[in-house]
From TrEMBL, chain A:
GO cellular component, one term: plasma membrane
Stored Pfam families: ABC_tran, oligo_HPY
Signal peptide (residue range): none
NCBIfam families linked: oligo_HPY
Gene Ontology MF, one: ATP hydrolysis activity
Keyword Cell membrane assigned: yes
Name recorded for this polypeptide: Oligopeptide transport system ATP-binding protein
PANTHER family in UniProt: DIPEPTIDE TRANSPORT ATP-BINDING PROTEIN DPPD, OLIGOPEPTIDE TRANSPORT ATP-BINDING PROTEIN APPD
Membrane topology: Peripheral membrane protein
Keywords: ATP-binding, Cell membrane, Membrane, Nucleotide-binding, Transport
Major subcellular location class: membrane
Annotated GO biological process: peptide transport
UniProtKB/TrEMBL annotation, chain B:
InterPro entries: AAA+_ATPase, ABC_transp_ATP-bind, ABC_transporter-like_ATP-bd, ABC_transporter-like_CS, Oligopep_ABC_C, P-loop_NTPase
UniProt name for this protein: ATP-binding cassette domain-containing protein
Database matches in CDD domains: ABC_NikE_OppD_transporters (cd03257)
PANTHER family: D,D-DIPEPTIDE TRANSPORT ATP-BINDING PROTEIN DDPF-RELATED (PTHR43776:SF7), TRANSPORT ATP-BINDING PROTEIN (PTHR43776)
Family: Belongs to the ABC transporter superfamily.
One GO BP: peptide transport
Pfam family, one: oligo_HPY
Molecular-function GO terms, alphabetical: ATP binding; ATP hydrolysis activity
Length: 336, 324
């Protein structure tokens, strides 16, 4: 880990993203902040609709309409990229920051060969000659473990299996040696054995090419496997973040407790009943006034319903947004 | 419970389901989705079925209910071969919960009508009042309210929709339910709710489940016995603890080692077996043992002869040449 370096590669400060739909403003991301240092792998976990993907689309500058960044800023390599014009963003996107998507079936263009699609990235961002580009593509294919690269680059996406397509996506993302790779549920659509292949590949590549990775997933097992630190999102807020051991062994937020308890233990001998989180996910059009998790929280206090919780720093890296951490409030509520 | 001494609810022998595919002019080839699968499902147990996509686990579940007509083989339900009979009366006993809670509910029907439809088909009520009462009762069983009966599917979240799907399956008081990946479309925190509900219902009503999933940790949690499928074949079958402690088939071993564990310390020390390559196309599955193309231990015999599915330990069946 190189987390000791003091300048974060990516700093997200109080980022707010809303979707302006005809039924009203959907506050998909509500004031989230995090730092990512060079060489780190950060996992963002959360349920569907928690804002985990949208927040990174914001970083990439590819928010789908009618989404807008309504507050906060994004600093990449010390530079504010929050409201950069499209022209400037194009220079960064695909070169310094690149992304792999969840569904390799739909994120490749079916009417161009895969080699052609990677070539496009290289034409855009580098001044290599034809021959050099071809060599680079073959090198990339070898890097991501696609056999017979000379033959494969001339094939179309439908000739590849799901796992292989995801490898092509990774090759494309790595084409310009990005500083930051955002992986949006890269293994969710794949089978377990293929998932294991892709995860092993990503881990290996991360060490080979010195890059930072944001790994978005809902699978805690995958997080435990690949990440150095974790951010847990719920209802558009980042409710807890910290390094991986802190989150898994000393979680402080009731939602994180719940998440960890609700996965069945594979090596349990006795049959243990699962402990679910009761209730349903939040409605982001009318989010609760206080803590987003309050309506489902078993430790919910009065203050949780009305005021957003403060950020409490457990240690230098471990931060949690929860009223339970504020001693005075907790004591007061308990005595009532 | 039913006063039948026969302990096995379902006995399946040599079940095959081939789908024909046009492969050029006047030429047909077959996708062997389920190829010669034999197993028994005991009364009151949960049999888990795992495997990667395309291994035929869903086809197997659907063929059991004759939603697909079997190509060959016997399905004996409670002593009667149901491969040739009229299924209407058996639909009351055998039900299914589908994977996708978004696609499996008709968006134009109210929840009340969706749950009421099986009641209508099987004429399970004598008056409208009784029908309504039964619908309310079912909604309560799955943790929803009476007022939900007049709403439409789009007003519900994924977890709630899956509850509706379960209520529909319960409507006819079945004995046997095929749960076809009932939780894979749901969020983690909701999955546990549904798994617990399925377990409670089983305890209360004595259901027998065939639980199909690709999430091995959930399957292990809910099942008494587990079958592992690969390319249409059953490669291993055993009681669930035994399978996790002592997997014998190389495919099961890799499948188990590929599960990500939600525990960073354990995950760091865990040794992983990573399979190379992809699952072959079921259109031309390999000769001999279907797993030979990816198996690290494959020998000459594996390419020639299909291994026999036999018992290696009490109640632990495996199809592999390399086990003595």
């Amino acid at each position: 880990m190189q987390s000791n370096e003091h300048i974060p590669l990516l700093r997200v400060q109080d980022l707010e993203i809303s979707f302006f739909t005809y039924v009203g403003e959907v506050k998909a991301v509500r004031k989230i902040s995090y730092d990512l240092y060079p060489g780190e792998v950060m996992g963002i976990v959360g349920e569907s609709g928690s804002g985990k993907s949208v927040s990174s689309y914001g970083v990439m500058g590819i928010l789908p309409n009618p989404g807008k960044i309504v507050g906060g800023r994004i600093l990449f390599d010390g530079r504010d990229i929050t409201h950069l014009p499209e022209k400037e963003l194009l220079k960064i996107r695909g070169k310094d920051i690149s992304m792999i998507f969840q569904d390799p079936m739909t994120s490749l263009n079916p009417v161009f060969t895969v080699g052609n699609q990677i070539n496009e990235v290289l034409i855009k961002h580098t001044s290599l000659t034809n021959k050099e580009r071809l060599d680079r593509i073959i090198e990339l294919f070898e890097l991501v473990g696609i056999t017979q690269p000379e033959k494969r680059i001339q094939q179309y996406p439908h000739e590849f299996s799901g796992g292989m397509r995801q490898r092509v996506m990774i090759a494309m993302a790595l084409a310009c040696n990005p500083k930051l790779l955002i992986a949006d549920e890269p293994t969710t659509a794949l089978d377990v054995t293929i998932q294991a292949q892709i995860i092993a590949l990503l881990k290996e590549l991360k060490d080979k090419i010195d890059m930072s990775v944001i790994f978005i997933t809902h699978d805690l097992g995958v997080v435990a496997d690949v990440c150095d630190k974790v951010a847990v999102m719920y209802g558009g807020s980042l409710i807890e973040k910290g390094n991986i051991d802190d989150i898994f062994y000393e979680p402080k937020h009731p939602y994180t407790w719940g998440l960890l308890r609700s996965v069945p233990k594979i090596n349990a001998d006795e049959h243990e009943r699962l402990i679910p989180i009761e209730g349903n996910p939040v409605d982001l059009i009318n989010p609760p006034k206080g803590c987003a998790f309050a309506p489902r929280c078993e430790h919910c206090m009065k203050v949780c319903m009305t005021k957003r919780p403060p950020v409490y720093a457990v240690n230098k890296e471990h931060e949690v947004d929860c009223w339970l951490t504020v001693k005075e409030v907790y004591e007061k509520e308990k005595n009532q | 419970m039913i006063t039948n001494k026969n302990e096995n609810l379902l006995e399946i022998t040599g079940l095959k389901k081939y789908f024909s595919v046009k492969a050029g002019f006047a030429k047909t080839s077959y996708v062997k989705a389920v190829d010669d699968v034999s197993l028994t499902i005991r009364k009151g147990e949960t049999l888990g079925l795992v495997g990667e996509s395309g291994c035929g686990k869903t086809t197997f579940g659907r063929t059991l209910l004759r939603l697909y007509e079997p190509t060959e083989g016997k399905i004996i339900y409670d002593g009667v071969d149901i491969t040739k009979v009229d299924m209407l009366s058996y639909r009351k006993k055998m039900q299914i919960i589908f994977q996708d809670p978004y696609a499996s509910l008709d968006p134009r029907m109210t929840i009340g009508d969706i749950i009421g439809e099986p009641l209508d088909i099987h004429k399970l009520y004598s008056s409208k009042v009784q029908r309504q009462a039964r619908i309310y009762e079912l909604l309560k069983t799955v943790g929803l309210n009476e007022e939900h009966a007049d709403r439409f599917p789009h007003e519900f979240s994924g977890g709630q929709r899956q509850r509706i799907g379960i209520a529909r399956a319960l409507a006819v008081n079945p004995e046997f339910i095929v749960c076809d990946e009932p939780i894979s479309a749901l969020d983690v925190s909701i999955q546990a709710q549904v798994v617990n509900m399925l377990e409670d219902l089983q305890k209360e009503k004595g259901f027998t489940y065939l639980f199909i999933a690709h999430d091995l940790s959930v399957v292990k949690h809910i099942s008494n016995r587990i079958g592992v499928m690969y390319l249409g074949h059953l490669v291993e079958l055993s009681n669930s603890n035994e399978l996790y402690k002592n997997p014998m088939h190389p495919y099961t071993q890799t499948l188990l080692s590929a599960i990500p564990i939600a525990d960073p310390k354990e995950s760091r020390i865990k040794e992983r077996k990573i399979l190379t390559g992809d699952i072959p196309s079921p259109l031309d599955s390999p000769s001999g043992c279907t797993f030979q193309t990816r198996c690290p231990y494959a020998t000459e015999i594996c390419t020639k002869k299909a291994p026999e599915f036999r018992e290696h330990k009490k109640g632990h069946l495996v199809a592999c040449h390399n086990l003595k």
